[in-house]
Amino acid sequence: MPRICKHLTRTDRLRIEKCLNEGYTYRQIADVLRVHISTVYREIERGSYTRLNGDTYEFYTAYSPDIAEERYRANLSAKGADLKKLETITNLQSISATKSKMKSVPRRRLWQI
Hints:
- There is one protein chain.
- By secondary structure, this protein is mainly alpha-helical.
- The protein has helices at about 10-20, 25-35, 35-45, 65-75, 85-105, and strands spanning about 50, 60-65.
- The protein is built from five helices and two strands, in the order αααββαα.
- The protein has a two-stranded antiparallel ribbon with strand order 1-2.
- Helix 2 crosses helix 3 (about 35-45).
């Protein structure tokens, strides 16, 4: 089957969790979801967290679709050009200050400013 280029949905993330719990390899998960294996690697990295085993008191890495979805949304909102609000406000303030100076200066002296 051909691979599909798309963003993973919440359902896809739940399927990844289920496949990991059933012992699937990353390649098998990629085949189930019909995505590239690197997508699976990145997604598992995005949703990984350290968990404490209550019986042995040892830490191990686990996958959470909720954490992955939360990080995905945060990264999605961070995309795009940076806001230039502060720079624009500073420029407007300097322009208004220059205008106020120009009002108090006679026209014949404007060329000296």
